[in-house]
Fold this sequence. Notes:
Number of strands: 20
CATH architecture of the largest domain: 2-Layer Sandwich
Number of domains: 5
Helix content: 40-55%
Shape: flat
CATH topology of the largest domain: Nucleotidyltransferase, domain 5
Amino acid sequence: xxxxxxxxxxxxxxxxxxxxxxxxxxxxxxxxxxxxxxxxxxxxxxxxxxxxxxxxxxxxxxxxxxxxxxxxxxxxxxxxxxxxxxxxxxxxxxxxxxxxxxxxxxxxxxxxxxxxxxxxxxxxxxxxxxxxxxxxxxxxxxxxxxxxxxxxxxxxxxxxxxxxxxxxxxxxxxxxxxxxxxxxxxxxxxxxxxxxxxxxxxxxxxxxxxxxxxxxxxxxxxxxxxxxxxxxxxxxxxxxxxxxxxxxxxxxxxxxxxxxxxxxxxxxxxxxxxxxxxxxxxxxxxxxxxxxxxxxxxxxxxxxxxxxxxxxxxxxxxxxxxxxxxxxxxxxxxxxxxxxxxxxxxxxxxxxxxxxxxxxxxxxxxxxxxxxxxxxxxxxxxxxxxxxxxxxxxxxxxxxxxxxxxxxxxxxxxxxxxxxxxxxxxxxxxxxxxxxxxxxxxxxxxxxxxxxxxxxxxxxxxxxxxxxxxxxxxxxxxxxxxxxxxxxxxxxxxxxxxxxxxxxxxxxxxxxxxxxxxxxxxxxxxxxxxxxxxxxxxxxxxxxxxxxxxxxxxxxxxxxxxxxxxxxxxxxxxxxxxxxxxxxxxxxxxxxxxxxxxxxxxxxxxxxxxxxxxxxxxxxxxxxxxxxxxxxxxxxxxxxxxxxxxxxxxx
Length: 651
């Protein structure tokens, strides 16, 4: 890092503002905003061991300069960030390039004969806007449905004026749609049709159907059967439209619900458009090459989305908290002209909506497979960052799970080109180690894996260990003792809480500057945590990868899968062993009788619930009585309630 940039980092202001990261050619590559510029910008740089030089592996190759713009408050920072993103189009910001996808219907109620028309952008012109619609096909279908059933005019303003004055012949389309220029409908009658169309577009179908039914009955009572039939057709059309929508909230509010899913450096933002309590539309926005935190990406997306002229609802629901929620709400209120709530729900019906959006985001992201080039790019980055001897196409990860020294098991999961390869998943029962020595247990598991691999010539490119230096040392010893070579090795240590000594030194965390901010509680109420670290054999200091980079997220994904696989197997083993050992303590009940009991009763719970007579029928009077007395001791009711808590503790 050049001296000028290091000097800027040392003297960043603590004011709110916007920062621009530039590459070595002076091009803006990222624009972000912050309530505290010093804290936010320094958070991108990791303090490494005793070296106080600030750097990030990702930014070290690209960052040539840093520019900050100080503003007065969060809202000004939000607005300035939007303008700078649109101006510079930075490569690492989420960008809404195709603004033609945002389509709405516009109705200018100030006109005597308003026309419903398709609009790409929402303007502050006093007109009513409905939408957005996810495709041109859906919005044209809605437009045809409204014009056909409510007889709104389809001809443009100039042609309509000439036709109403008798200076131009109505078109065939006007005649088929019974446009006012053909029927000479009065402005008062046309306004009634417009009001009904607004109810339909607002999703207030119940009120609209009641109005139409009342008019149908009134026309029928006056022997105006053609008019009554027309209202009947309107009712049928509205009810058919209603069947296609599902009521998902009980308060009939308008809200946009955002969900986010991430797969390494790919993210997908999914939006549910709730109108009148019904799910009106939905839309997915995929992005790739995103290495910045989810909170920044989602916050920037929300700003750009509503700044692009899209309809602003009464509520905006987000999957997690953002630091500038109040500023966003104030900005949206000014744009909409009425109160807008922006928040992340914690419970109830609205939380269910956010979870629904997140599930849809994950589903759509899963259906979009990563290309071979994207997979290889991530593996190449991992190879370069860890100085691996070969491209890690096949990666295995190992973990140990135990409870109070018993039922210790190990797990091995396999990924090929960044995707799970479950045919190579393996489970291990620890056989030679007693107590809670998980280093020795890991040594046993890896020794068995290495011997099997040497015999079958089936070895991965990289083995990852869940843990720190101690676990890595066990793996190195296992490789050395078995003579295994040609396989790269590393360990991944989880993020952990940082103690006061580390805070004072600014080590093991995202930099001394941000450590101090956390210590005084200016930025977060949560305790600070260290970054995830990668340990390599014969390397003293850990490698701190960019915390949102594709390569670190891949390692974390493999590590978490190994941990899940180990815990699942551990629980199965512990449950079987606990009940078996309990029955083994009872004289006269061996393996055959245990199998007999499980076969007859079907489960351990039913054996415990069985009466003494039922047990005696299977085991005989004496053994049945002994088992019943063992399962139902006299002091069961007086047992310590603290013993009812789940004692599971796994590494």
